[in-house]
Amino acid sequence: MISFLIKRLVQMIPVLIGVTLVVFLIMQMVPGDPAVLLAGEGASKETIEEIRTQLGLNQPLYIQYFDYLTNIFKGDLGVSIKNNKPVLDEILVRLPITMELALFSILITIVLGMAAGIISAIRPYSVSDLSVMLIALIGISIPSFWFGLMLMYIFSVKLQILPVAGWDSWQHIILPAITLGAGGAAIVARMTRSSMLEVIRQDYIRTARAKGLREQIIISKHALRNALIPVITVVGLQFGALLGGTVLTESIFAINGLGRLIVESIRMRDLPMVQGGVLVASIIFVLVNLLVDLLYRIFNKRIELN
Questions:
Q1: In this entry, which stretches build a coiled coil (predicted)?
Q2: Mean pLDDT for the chain?
């Protein structure tokens, strides 16, 4: 186990370096000059050039990237071009909000998705199965931003039982978490149903029923446990998708999380902040994938970690 963890952590390094390189190159293609944005429209060329020198923007691209990469290994993500504050400090302020939103959303994804999938698998091709799968299909098809706006209109504008935007109480969590978790729940429901149906048809399930075991025990102890491997994979991927989805959801509900910070930084061409935000999100995504691999081993002892 320890050797596996060390191996995976070492493999993270080139992946994360690749992420920083891709983001750096993409940001260089974005129109606009950060020095001009900071100096203002009426600034002189001398002032703009002085700002470029202070920010190191007059250096060749490979030197800019090498300096940034060197600072990362020192634990320094740089200083924001927008407000001249350390990038890491800004991220640490916003990150807990995004993580809280993502965790509540993934909880909704797991609970609703697995419950719906199990119900469908127990009674395949019944009215309940067709109804659940129809709802799941609709959930996958609806764009999250439209779904969020509809929830806001119904529960905040019309019924006035939930706040429109912000992040001040548990009530503010409900609509964004549902918006972010609903699509994932639909995907998990379909995967759970498919995996459960495959397991339920196995010989050892028929043997368990022939022995007279209660259906609840057969489903929970035998069928569900063996059907969880592909479901865990999907949940892990959905958590990564949730981190990306927070960008849009936080913008819709005016939540000052990491996703919204990255969007604002892109508009200002704040390269250090964008790279720092994407790097932190990538680290979380890689760690979640590592956790998924460990869960494989927990739920199925026959799987070897290598």
A1: none
A2: 82
